[in-house]
Amino acid sequence: MSETPDGDGAARPWRVLLVDDHPLFRDGLAAAIDLDPGFTVVARAATGEEALAAAADSTPDLVVMDLGLPGLSGIETTRQLRERHPDVRVLVMTMSEDDDNLLAAVRAGARGYLLKGAVREEILHALHTVGRGGAVFSPRMAERLGALFTAFGSAPAKEAFPTLTAREREVLDLLAAGLSYRQIAQRLFVADKTVRNHVGSIFAKLQVHDRATAIVRARDAGLGSG
């Protein structure tokens, strides 16, 4: 993707969709981005569902995506945006320094991962880099991403979720294999309520809101095949 010539042959600015559930942050970010003639903010959304609708209506080139959205998570929204609009490039901008979120965002198709403490120049540099087809990460996150991928190159797939306990990974593995809560309870010789408690903790740590999304994340990491 590059800045696209308009009908007069002049390069048009990249079209940007902002997705964040905090209006003040969203509006401040829009004002900062619009000061750069290389970009124009064409839509804003507070939820993943709004983002998908806005992308269909406004055809953005770039999306700045928060992860902690109400309803559909930022990671699942990114995944669906990439499926529906393969040319759209997503830059995650979040408060989360969690390893699971970092890896999940990359697997979902994000081309960059910035923390919300980034200054305006860093944000604009990241947008230009992603717009031109590159990838960009906050220095701290880039270092951790490299270490994680190095570790996962020799580690079993179940280690892709380091914040989960061993039992939670076991439950997630069985969930991804298609077992019901009752079947998981029988397999592990525990009560149904115990399984549901584990699943609730898994959802919270992975920042997902439903079983289907958790299963997709797990299968992307290689779980559920056993």
By DSSP (H or I, 4+ residues per run), the number of helices equals: 10
- SS class: alpha/beta
Helix content range: 40-55%
At the fourth level of CATH, the homologous superfamily of the largest domain is Response regulator
CATH top level of the largest domain? Alpha Beta
The portion of residues forming beta strands comes to 5-15%
CATH fold description of the largest domain: Rossmann fold
Indicate the radius of gyration in whole angstroms. 19 Å
- For the biggest β-sheet, the strand order reads 2-1-3-4-5-6
Modified residues (4-aspartylphosphate): 66
InterPro entries: CheY-like_superfamily, NreC/VraR/RcsB-like_REC, Sig_transdc_resp-reg_C-effctor, Sig_transdc_resp-reg_receiver, Tscrpt_reg_LuxR_C, WalR-like
Protein name: Response regulator transcription factor
Keywords: DNA-binding, Phosphoprotein, Transcription, Transcription regulation
Report on this model:
The structure is a single chain. By secondary structure, the protein is an alpha/beta fold. It contains 10 helices and 6 strands. It starts with 13 loop residues before the first strand and ends in a 6-residue tail after the last helix. The protein is elongated, with a radius of gyration of 19 Å. It has 2 domains: 14-150, Response regulator (Rossmann fold); 157-220, Arc Repressor Mutant, subunit A (Orthogonal Bundle), CATH 1.10.10.10. Helix 3 links the parallel strand 3 and strand 4. InterPro entries: CheY-like_superfamily (IPR011006), NreC/VraR/RcsB-like_REC (IPR058245), Sig_transdc_resp-reg_C-effctor (IPR016032), Sig_transdc_resp-reg_receiver (IPR001789), Tscrpt_reg_LuxR_C (IPR000792), WalR-like (IPR039420). Residues 15-131 form the Response regulatory domain. The modification 4-aspartylphosphate is found at residue 66.
